[in-house]
Amino acid sequence: MIRPLLIIGVIFAASLGSSAYAQAPGTSTGPAQVWPTRPVRLVLGLPPGSGSDLLARALAQRLTGQWGQPVVVENRTGANTIIATGAVARAAADGHTLLFGIGYSFTLIPHLYAKIPYDPIDDFAPITMLAEFGTVLVVNPALPVNNFSELIALARSQPGKIIYGSIGSGSSPHLMWEMIGNKAGIKLLHVPYKGQSQLMIAALTNEVNLTWAGVFSVRPHVTNGKLKALAYSGGKRSSAMPELPTIVELGYPEARTEVWYALFAPARTPRTLIDRIHGDVSKLLAEPDFREKEILSKGYEPGGLGPEEITALIRRDLVAGGMLVKISGARAE
Prior knowledge:
Elements: H1 31-34, E1 40-44, H2 51-67, E2 71-75, H3 82-89, E3 97-102, H4 103-107, H5 109-112, E4 124-133, E5 135-139, H6 148-157, E6 163-166, H7 172-184, E7 189-192, H8 196-204, E8 210-214, H9 215-223, E9 228-232, E10 259-266, H10 271-286, H11 288-295, E11 301-302, H12 307-328
Parallel strand pairs: 1-2, 1-3, 6-7, 6-8
Antiparallel strand pairs: 3-10, 4-10, 4-11, 5-8, 5-9
Helix pairs in contact: 7-12
């Protein structure tokens, strides 16, 4: 969702100094002081029940009390998050429609599709980085492997027989396996799913032999023996599952992937309003109870980046994402 060489994973940006941050002309009170005047939509491109959905709903619940207006999570699924992201790009720039952005929507999707209904730089104003995390490689116990090396050896002996699942063509897990496959000289069969919950069911029932998924999704199943964990996609070991070697340690630094979530507004949203939302959300993320319950306990690392920092991150990861797509040879199906 990425800092794949960068990464999977949330969010967007307007050019530094772009019109996305221009102060709206007019009243002396400014837009931030009279906002919100109606419910705020928080648009998410993944289905209910996913880790991103749970974080979005926790955020929405707390902000509802703080802002005095309902903050409503709107799950607009389909087309690998393109539908949701494009909808926010076209929304009114008044702060009443926000995007719960996922990194690969801005850094990988633009390289995978010939045409998408948004520009990852010009159509959004980034607000706040919410969280980032790596993913865990899990296999169904029916697959006779106990570590990553054994998995690669088995795949070499059975080309095209081992099935891996992802949350869609062009998603981080898809690109990671294309990259690993190219380097290791193996061929796995890819099966895309519409969301994380469907994918986890497929892994648990051995409909797919393996997948990459977040710590929060897989840890209970690893603990009870229904899945086996073999590796972690980040550049450093997970604080939640420190026993797992990273993909870098295993010799595949090109496939390193961290997913990130961030909050965005449409471009041309007044800077005073961006600053107001950034300040409110940053204070919430810093609250010990919210930080522990909604971030750390789910295997996420706290975000904290502000608008300009997110812009710089996206610009860098767009370049890295293009390299990852090119090297992997992957294309959206």
